[in-house]
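Note to self: keep these together.
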Amino acid sequence: MFTYTLKGKDLTKDEAVALAEATSTSPIKIDLATVLNLRKVDSAKLFKLSVERKSPELANLAWKISVNDAQEAPILTSKKLEVLAVQRPVDQLLDALHGSGGLWAVGAAMILSATSNGSWWTLRQVASYWVNNLEVGPKSVLFQGFELVNGVWEPKDYRAGVSRRETFHVSPVYIALRDALQWLMKNDLVERRSNISRGSRDENQTTQVKAMLRPFYTMQLNERGKEMIEMWGDADQFILNSFKTRLR
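Structure:
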């Protein structure tokens, strides 16, 4: 995949590494955007690979590539969490989730389980991960707001020929995850970070739309969140059972 050269002569990977170590005391950083044409990257194929290999890291990479110039946009980080004055013990919070019949409680389980790998996730990534990994019938509300693209379930965005009622952002899964995130933040179980992306996933959009800046959030478990998901041994089964019984 990679070929290393020195003044026209090919080098092996070991030779290139040895040369770099001998000439530099600090790590050499290579921006792949300067040597790769990211417009040719098939993010849907990359996401499909992440599902096949069960790799959230590849899903994160697919997301980064799918948002135009996201790495050049400013990132706003906020470490202040919306928490209650008195924190409830994690075991009591877990009981509250089990006792709730709302889909938001399932959304909380989806977020806790998906983000347990330590990575930063968006709600869109969490939803896509579960839609592509849960084995439930096609009539489950899980699939509402999604469409098959090259064999992968992807969130359906508003565009010509698609009504807003069919889109991801009004789907039961998105609403459940949105409400769950608020509950998780109030109970000091996650950290949320604000980011700004530029452009659109749709290459056919106008120049004005492609130049627009859009805020989006990523989330990561904090120590209390990690404690809860470690305590919740059957979280994935809880999610599966919930979507098996909730039908469109």
